[in-house]
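Write out the 3D structure for:
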Amino acid sequence: LLDVLEHVPDPVPFLRSLATALAPGGRLAVKVPHGPAQLLKERVRAGLRPGARVDVATNLVHVGHFTPGSLRLALARAGFADIAVSVAPPEDA
């Protein structure tokens, strides 16, 4: 799932359906924007656009925002095991 999960209103049931569709021993790879990095992007955008608000809560494109911990929790609640989450550039810069 590349840049998909942040567009899903209720990600745990969606992830659960994927968990049941995977073959035994199958793997799922997920890439999502990192929540704090999204806030930084909103701040930059607001600085470039007079009158723009810094707000990720009302972003109509991304209905969910994830930190490594919240992504790990969503995957665990959906039934995934052996979960590995890492932060990659530019979010880890």
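Helices lie at 11-21, 35-48, 68-77.
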